[in-house]
Structures are given as structure tokens and as C-alpha cells.
Amino acid sequence: MADQAPTEQVANLHLDEVTGERVSKSExxxxxxxxxxxxxxxxKAAAAPPKPAKKTNAEADEKELTPNxxxxxxxxxxxxxxxxxxxxxxxxxxxxxxxxxxxxxxxxHLKSGEDDKSxxxxxxxxIYNKRASGSKLLFYDIRGNNGVKxxxxxxxxxxxxxxPSFEKQxxxxxxxxIIGIVGYAGRTAPKTxxxxxxxxxxxxxxxxxxxxxxxxxxxxxEYYGFKDQEQRYRKRYLDLIMNxxxxxxxxxxxxxxxxIRSYLDNAGFEEVETPILNMIxxxxxxxxxxxxxxxxxxxxxxRIAPELPLKMLIVGEYDKxxxxxxxxxxxxxxxxxxxEFTTCEFYEAYADFNDLMNRTEELVSGLVKQLTxxxxxxxxxxHGETYTVNWEAPWRRVEMIPALEEATGxxxxxxxxxxxxxxxxxxxxxxxxxxxxxxxxxxxxxxLDRLTGEFIEETAVNPTxxxxxxxxxxxxxxxxxxxxxxxxRFEAFVCKKEIANAYTELNQPFEQRLRxxxxxxxxxxxxxxxxxxxxxxxxxLEYGLPPTAGWGLGIDRLVMFLTNNYSIKEVLxxxxxxxxxxxxxxxxxxxxxxxxxxxxxxx
Length: 603
Hints:
19 helices, alpha+beta, about 35% helix
């Protein structure tokens, strides 16, 4: 009996003709009824009118595009506007009549929900954020008037008579665009803030928004920002758009230069301009850039310093002169050096290096006070070490040779013997003893400079004057009046870096010729930074240079310390960069993203 049970069970099953399965009678009925219901639903759906397609948010979709895809689509859209002029996306003029810097001062008294329609404001700026609250309400965050941030509120019912429709004004506007706004001041009244007892945001309530210049590229994401250091240097315009700190640095730089110029003007100095192209590279110990003047078939040099022509002007009866401008030195580039840089040099008749130490303290301390309201600033190095710097006068003063004697434990030869070959050999032994390396050529001047950098400059965190350099290091400085072989010179250091160099000027033409000849000797030894003999300058000295003191300040370095930037490239708007090596950007399929020519986009 047990063997017959499976046969009876199979006989009670029924064939499901749809699936080909054999199932129980109850299961088969259940399946048939479900199929009947499904068939009726399909018939009903087929008879119903088609549903309208769901409207997509074009801007939301654009966020998913690659940069090249976005550029292609955006360029096509703007090209179409250029053709149709509906509206033209690059209007010739927008009359801006209100400064956003005054908004808080003039309208900050408004309470939540209040506005002032008595005055129409016309403002402009770049969009940093665009957000919608339904189809009839938009908010823009813009920056205008050199970075002032303000919210713009746009409501469909506020569109002024005669203006394009709300949709026509806003549909083609994207983040990054520059827009003009016509409207009035008011303060929003969001429930969430009012419930907390807070005021709404002071805003411009727009009655018309006009596209003034579209941004064809995606701006970097607000959250992640634009942080790639090399790209920031190469695309400074985008760096300024995305990073307010960058803009603040350069506006601080402008204030620093304005203060220096104002100080010198008020002290009776006259600003002049001297040549960039020179037949001889003189006025400093540095390697020049060379060029060629075709009309004269002559090799020339970009100036490494304006010193010699400025001193010629003192010969020519100027009492006080200065120049703020670019210098060019064909030397190494690093965190504190750039091939072209900005300095201020001045020359003051009937002054000496002691007068200029006092003037340096007065100028720089006053500048820091004007910028910060005090005398203390902080500076962080590339290694993360933070210095607290006190710029208040008086500054520390250190005599070079006595400080080196103390640091090395060696008694240096008399100053008037420092230029000899015996001293040069002796210094090599001193460097070896104290483990200081000086690359070739090991001239006396270069070795003394290395020792100074190792043992004196390293102590100069607060402003410090290093004074009384040997003559062999200072070919244009006047002999010290009481210390043979030394000069009346100082260098000002802050945070272990030089910011200024000054001295009582050598005005004795015979001695100046000997100094130039010593420089020529060093050049013959392989020092390509040594100066050449300038016969024109020597001739000027022969007419009589009054007792004079000269001073040079590295503006880039000073800006670095006062804006807390350890790289000089952070304080130069357009630092010199090596040619960019283009990198292939692989896509998901391993191919390279196509670059779309603008000619193709416009088709």
C-alpha cells in the first residue's frame, strides 16, 4: 500500500498551462484568478490617457556631469543665447549705482519682514550659490564690490512691469555667473528664525535679474573648495573666486605698498623710475637674466637692482629718491625666492646707516600697527613651527664678526685682512670645524655668508639688525668710520629671513673702483653673482656724491610675514611656474574624456 501513495498524489495534480507545472486544484484556481485581475489592470491602463512626463531639474542633472560635459552643454546653451539674443548673455553695460559695502550700515536697522521700497538699488556680483524653494521663489548668494557677500531673494510676484518673465530671467542662470540685480533692500522673515527669536537675513529683494557674463565652467564644489596648491597658482583667477583668504592676502599687499609709499612721500622722498634694461648688471650681488636688443645689436641685462641709477640721481641734486618696482634675478626658486620680485629702494642724502636703522624701525613698526592695531603677529613655517613676532621698536642689533667669533670659538683676523688668500684658507678650516657646508666657489664672502646664516640669522625671529659687514661682502658700502675692513651696513631679519638691506653709501670714486676690481677678481674665481665694473657709475661718482645712505626692502617677504604665508608664491598674484604637464584623465571605460572644440559646440 505504501508503494501506491505517490501515484495517487500525482493523479490529483492539475497542469498549469501557462507555466507547464502540475499543481493542486486550489493553487491552480488561485493563479487563474490572479491572472484575470492582472489582465483587467492592463486593459484599464491601456485605455487611460498617458501621464505627463515628470519635469526634470536640469541644474540637478548637471551636477552629475563631468567638467567637459558641463562645458559642452553650457557652451551650447550660451551660444544659442548669443544667436537669439533672448536675452543676449554679454550686454555692453549694466549701470551699478549701489555699493554693497554700505548695505548693513544703511539698512541694518530693518526688522524681519520689513523692507525699504523707497529706493531702487542696482547691484552686481558673481553667484556662489543658487537654491530654489518651489518654482516661484529663488535665492542667490552673490559676492560683489570686492568680495562683499549678500543674499538676493527673487519672487515671481515681485517681477517689475516691463521686465522679462520670472522663468525667462532665471532659467538660464547658473552658479558662477555674473548677474546684475535691480531691487530694494529688505530683511527676510523665515519662520524657523523667528521662532528662535532671531532676525531674518538682510537681503536684496530682486525685481529684475540680468545675466551679465555667464560662467561656462563648473565652479569647484563649495564643500571641497579649490585647494590644489599648484592649480591655485596656475589659475589665480579661480583661486580668487573660490578662496576669500587669497583675496585678503593681496588686498593686504596693496595696503602695505600704499603705506610705504605714503610714508616716504610724507618724509620728503620723490618717487622715480629707472631702466629695466641695462648694459651692465650692477647694484647687487646676483646672477642676471640676459637678453638681446635687436636694433642696437647689443646684449643687455634685466636689472638686478635699481641702486646705481638711483645714486646717480642723488649726484644730480635729488635729496631723497625712491622706487618701488620689479627686479629680476636668474637664481634658484624656492619657498622664499622667485625669479622676479618686488622691492622698495630709497636713497637719502646727508644720512648714514644709523639714521636708516631708526627709519626702518619707524616705518615697519608703524606699518604693522596700522595693519593690525598692535605690534604682535604670528607666522607659521612650512614645518608647522609657529613664531610670535614683536615688531615694536627698538629692534635687537647684532655685530656680525663678534657674533661669529662667539659662535665658532675662533678669533677672526683683523677686518683689513679678511680679503686675503690666507683668510680664505683659514675660513675653510673654520667651516669644517663647525660642520657648515659652503658649495663652490668657496670665496671669503660666500663662506662668511654661510656662517652668518647658520649662527646669527637662526636667532633672528623678532626683527633684528645684523650690522657691520666686512668690505669683501659689501662692494658698494662705505668703510666703517672706526673699524678698518668693515662697513657701515646692516641687514634686517625677521623669522630668520632677510627683509631689508642698507648702508652708508661709498662715495669715494677711487675706493669704489678698487671694490669693483675685487668683484671682478671674485667673478674670475667662478662667482657668477659678483658685480661688473660700471664705468658710467664711476664717472658719476667723480662729479661728487654727497654723504648718502641707501636702503632696500623686499616687499614680497614682508607681505609673507604679515599675512602668515610661508611660500612666496602665496603673495605673488602670478608666480612663475614650470609649463604644465597635461595628465590623461581616464574614464570608467579606460578612455580619455574627449575635448570638445568650441566650433563643434556652436553647430
